[in-house]
Design brief:
Chain A contains 13 helices and nine strands. By secondary structure, chain A is of the alpha/beta class. Chain A has two domains: about 140 residues, Rossmann fold; about 150 residues, Rossmann fold. In chain A, the strands form two sheets. Chain A has a five-stranded parallel beta sheet. Chain A has a four-stranded parallel beta sheet with strand order 2-1-3-4, with helices on both faces. In chain A, α7 links the parallel β5 and β6. In chain A, about 45% of the residues are buried. Chain B is built from 13 helices and 19 strands. In chain B, strands 1, 2, 3, 4, 5, 16, 17, 18 and 19 form a nine-stranded mixed beta sheet that branches. In chain B, α3 runs parallel beside α4, α5 packs across α7 and α7 runs parallel beside α8. The longest helix of chain B is centred in the middle third of the chain and has 18 residues. Classes of the chains: A alpha/beta (about 300), B alpha/beta (about 425). Chains A and B meet through α5 of A and α6 of B.
């Protein structure tokens, strides 16, 4: 079994069998992570570059750890300034790195489309670690993995994404992946945070958090980006928390069986109350562990393709 | 020197002219139409042009020549060469050069640099100093030195207050204000807003960003009694606003670009930065409305918005890449392929929108195909099938989304200022 593409650019259009294969492969690696010696020789001799044009802590560490667990050689290139300011074009940077003979590139960038662009200028396998407001496929995969781990399936499940869906690559990757796997997807947020035309993807739009909790099996709660939103898309964080915040009271009143996911980092007291963030309904730290297994699975499947 | 255009179809709706005949041109003047004698043929260079169409020289009223400032992208000379190759005998160039065209010196510099060329260049001067939208540009001086219109193109005239002043002042010269219609507070994006932008995760620009300014400018022009020309119109509601305003008698005119009636935001899915424009490529309904507007006369002009960019600037991450494409050498082919051959426009309408109307808006004389007149002519073959090849462009820049596209219709020759461009060469005639 192998994947149908040599790159992971997003979950849009990725066939069900591919997602299934990645999730199943991750189950094997998840088991490796529980061993005393957490390393396998699978990608020995492969060179992977983590090309991060945007600040990232957990995604970069997660990828790096996954690469080390698979015995690959890894190089990190991180810069938070855009190439336009740096004086060297993105293309030149990539060509230079490629000239050093790398096999795979994991890329994060502020601009949507950069992973696609990379496939045109590089021969390496490209893995998207987040591009602009577009996709973050490994996050989508680890979220699906975490749901499946707890609830045993994805098909037929009701999943609601709560938060700034319009400015979230996590939301888009979740929507694409979950729809492919047969889940029913709802988004719940103020109307200023709903992307244009989202209903056309078969996604239901609601604006009531109680309804979201009551009618779904899973809530995937997104981080509210303070710098991007306050005063423009929402009047205040206080109002957001009052009307869209996920709290223990709401969960206990409307649905005690709900499963809460959050991609992190959490704004405690905004999208989640602290009680929920540390409470029995969430799997937030499992998501982090699963993230390493998912990234190992993706790296392994792409890195051993012929 | 004498040349003879033999058996060419002469077409000019302004003169109600449509006939096949021979034309004798001597020293750049149309000497004789029809009834040529043996002595006329003596020492004349004869061009066999059966089935070719000869029209008053085409005019592109929206080009960026980049000089002064970005001579690495285009110069007045290469831009004019590109225009000649595309079938144009005249262009109006936009003021977003460096420095901007906001002083008589820059207008004179451009006139001086272009004066020997086949292609006539008419500078559009900045409406405000440095196109900053704050203080008026010295319009008397600019007009006197040869500017034909005012625009802050590349940017919108920022506030209604300044727009009012610009219109009041420019009204003294009956010069049009050419507006790049985009509300800055809504236009901070990289593509059209819609399902496609959602799927691609690109920051998006809604139609309303354009329509609000079109509405504002129409109301202001009506209020003041001034002339406004809407550059590169791209949305359905904007076309409707212009249509209604014209019915009321507002002095508004509009232009559309080939990319806005040929491409849609769907093309952006490749993340090819040659599909990044301002205003952005819109959806199918908007494209259809632009074509409808061209058909019913709401949109007066087809202009290219020729915007050369260096390779290293276009080959960039999508959100950082600059807007715009080169268009002079593909425009005629696209108009013929997409509008004339598809029966949206007649050849007469093509001549109106690409030769007569732009000159009328800028108050320039329209060329006549008449004995005794200066020969200012474009000859094209409406049926020539060819493939766009950016490496053959005369323009210094190659940023075109139409590379490798098959087009039907191409310029054969242009004649103006005693010069002819034919088979890739300029000759004095």
């Amino acid at each position: 079994m192998s994947l149908s593409s040599k790159h992971l650019l997003g979950l849009y259009g990725v066939p069900k069998e591919d997602i299934q294969l990645i999730l199943d492969t991750a189950t094997t690696f998840r088991e490796v992570l529980e061993r005393p010696i957490k390393k396998v020789p699978t990608l020995q001799g492969k060179t992977i570059v983590n090309l991060f044009y945007e600040n990232s802590t957990r995604t970069r560490i997660s990828f790096e750890l996954a690469q080390k667990r698979l015995s690959a050689d890894t190089i990190n290139f991180s810069t938070s300034t855009s190439s336009t300011k740096k004086g060297e074009t993105f293309k030149d940077t990539v060509r230079n790195i490629e000239a050093m003979k790398v096999d795979m590139i994991v890329v994060r960038h502020q601009s949507a489309g950069v992973p696609q662009y990379l496939t045109k200028i590089s021969k390496a396998n490209i893995i998207n670690a987040g591009d602009g407001l577009h996709e973050h496929p490994t996050q989508g995969l680890l979220d699906m993995y975490s749901i499946r781990e707890r609830l045993g399936k994805l098909e037929g499940l009701k999943v609601c994404i709560v938060g700034d869906v319009a400015h979230s690559r996590v939301a888009l990757s979740n929507i694409f992946g979950l729809k492919t796997m047969g889940a029913q997807v709802t988004v719940c947020s103020p109307s200023t945070m709903i992307p244009i035309g989202i209903e056309a993807l078969g996604v239901k739009v609601i604006h009531n958090i109680n309804e979201a909790i009551a009618n779904n099996d899973v809530l995937n709660v997104l981080r509210i980006q303070l710098e991007r939103n306050a005063g423009v898309r929402i009047p205040s964080l206080r109002e957001y928390h009052q009307y869209f915040g996920v709290t223990t009271e709401r969960i206990e009143k409307f649905n005690r069986d709900i499963l809460i996911l959050h991609p992190g980092p959490i704004n405690r007291g905004v999208e989640l109350s602290s009680e929920v963030a540390d409470g029995p309904y969430q799997v937030i730290l499992d998501q982090v562990t699963n993230g390493v297994a998912i990234r190992m699975a993706v790296l392994y499947l792409l890195g051993t393709m012929h | 020197m004498k040349i003879i255009l033999k058996q060419v179809r002469l077409l000019n709706p302004e003169q109600k002219l449509d006939k096949q005949d021979d034309v004798l041109i001597e020293n750049g003047i149309i000497k004789k139409i029809g009834g040529l004698t043996d002595s006329d043929y003596k020492s004349a260079k004869v061009f066999e042009l059966e089935n070719k169409i000869c029209v008053p020289g085409l005019f592109d009223m929206h080009v960026h020549l980049r000089e002064p400032g970005r001579e690495d992208e285009e110069t007045i000379e290469t831009g004019c060469n590109s225009a000649a190759a595309g079938g144009f005998t005249g262009v109006a160039c936009m003021p977003n050069t460096n420095p901007d065209i906001d002083s008589a010196e820059i207008v004179r510099f451009i006139k001086e640099k272009s004066k020997e060329h086949l292609v006539d260049v008419f500078p559009v001067a900045a409406a405000t100093l440095g196109r900053k939208g704050e203080a008026l540009s010295p319009m008397f001086e600019l007009i006197e030195s040869g500017a034909v219109a005012f625009s802050d193109d590349g940017a919108v005239i920022k506030t209604a207050g300044v727009l009012r002043s610009v219109m009041e002042y420019s009204k003294m010269f009956d010069a049009p204000v050419i507006e790049h219609c985009e509300d800055d507070s809504l236009a901070d994006g990289a593509m059209n807003e819609g399902l496609t932008s959602t799927l691609l995760g690109l920051p998006a620009i809604p139609n309303i960003a354009e329509e609000l300014i079109v509405a504002r400018d129409i109301m202001m022009a009506e209020f003041i009694g001034a002339r406004v020309h809407i550059a590169h119109i791209s949305t359905k509601a904007a076309v409707e606003l212009v249509r209604n305003a014209k019915k009321r008698g507002v002095k508004v005119t509009a232009e559309a670009t080939p990319h806005h009636f040929t491409l849609t935001d769907d093309n952006v899915k490749t993340f090819d930065t040659n599909f990044k424009m301002s205003p952005p490529l819109r959806n199918r309904a908007d494209v259809d409305a632009v074509i409808e507007g061209l058909m019913d006369g709401t949109i007066d002009v087809i202009a290219s918005d020729h915007a050369p960019h260096a390779i290293e600037e276009k080959e960039m991450e999508f959100i950082y890449a600059p807007n715009g494409i080169v268009g002079l050498e593909t425009m005629l082919g696209l108009v013929l392929s997409e509008l004339v051959h598809k029966k949206h426009l007649t050849l007469e309408q093509l001549v109106e929108k690409m030769s007569i109307n732009p000159r009328k808006i800028l108050k320039l004389n329209t060329p006549q195909i008449k004995e005794g007149e200066k020969a200012d002519l474009t000859i094209f073959d409406k049926d020539n099938i060819w493939t766009v090849d950016i490496t053959k462009f005369k323009s210094k820049s190659k940023n075109s989304p139409f590379d490798k596209r098959l087009l039907t219709g191409k310029s054969v020759a242009v004649i103006n200022n005693g010069k002819m461009f034919y088979e890739d060469k300029f000759t004095n005639i």
